Amino acid sequence: MENSNKMNKSTATELRRRAEAKLQAREPEAWPPDTEHEMQKLLHELQVHQVELEMQNAELCRSREELEIRVKERTIELERINRELEQFCYGISHEFRAPVARLEGFGNMLVEIAEVGDKVSIVNCARRIVAASNRLRVVIDSFLALNRLSRAEIQLQKLNLSDMAKYIVAEILENIGDNLVHVSIDPNVTATGDRNLLEICMRNLLGNAVKFSSKTPDASVRFGKRVVEGENVYYVKDNGAGFDMECADNIFLPFRRQQNDDEFEGTGIGLATVHRIIEKHSGRIWAEAKPGAGATFYFTLQESSRR
Fold first, then answer.
1. pTM for the whole thing?
2. How far is CA 110 from each of CA 3, 124, 224, rounded to the nearest angstrom?
3. Strands 190-194 and 295-299
């Protein structure tokens, strides 16, 4: 299409050049009146045609640029979907296997115990089956939550993240019954984003910060904002357990926990949820940490995001 327009434009320019050359090659009185009129009319038509071609070519360039943008957006979306599929397969192969194996094992054990009639052992085995079932339900619910999050439409509005952080922290400390964690929140930190999604994001980040610093003497958590090269960078910092930065690439994947389940409770889905929310806001999220010295999670938000 573009080559055809260039050819038409080149042809029109050449015809115009030839017509002008013929007009200039002969004296005006040598031309019959009708012929000169026709030539002037032809020149005018060629000029109009050339303008139309230039307008069409400009429109074609705009359409091509828009198409390239759409292709880029679709490519990014396809890459995201592929990553989600990989994470789903990982979850199926790793997270479902353990509780299903427990259910099978305790089920067989229950059959054997039932034949003997040991009621205490039967009750104990049944409780383990319930625990394995609950773990399986948590995994399934987590997958469903991530799936709903991927399809959610965001509604942008101006938000006061400082106020949001204050009532989230108050709820967290009330639920765990622990006021020994010192929490500092920078005032008047604002952003544009989806209220519900960013509240989920903040609740996960602040909840993790409180949880992983709860066993640290003089535990502290801070939420604030920095401006780095003209960009607002929000952060949640704690002085808790931290983690090895060699594992940093995996911390935002579902069910990739850095601490033992026995040490800190959790589903392993929180940071994956946070990553998905920041991604939907066309932002970035990363972490800096050191074992035993706490962790800091940074994130940015794009106010123009419409995903």
1. 0.62
2. 76, 9, 53
3. unpaired
Q: 233 and 226 in contact (C-beta within 8 Å)?
A: yes
The two tokens of residue 261 are 């389940």
CA distance 104 to 207: 34
Instruction: Tell me the C-alpha distance between 228 and 230, whole Å.
Output: 5
Rounded Cα distance between 285 and 278, Å, is 7
CA distance 64 to 59: 9
pLDDT per position as a tens digit, 101-152: 777 787 887 777 777 777 788 888 888 888 778 777 777 777 777 777 777 7
What is the C-alpha radius of gyration for the chain, rounded to an integer number of angstroms?
A: 33
pLDDT digits (tens, 9 = 90+) for 41-79: 777 777 888 888 888 888 888 888 888 888 888 888 788
Q: Does domain 155-299 have CATH number 3.30.565.10?
A: yes
**For the ranges 47-51, 74-78, 236-240, 259-263, which has the lowest average pLDDT?**
259-263
Angle, vertex CA 301, rays to CA 84 and CA 181, nearest 5: 90
Whether pLDDT at 213 is above 60: yes
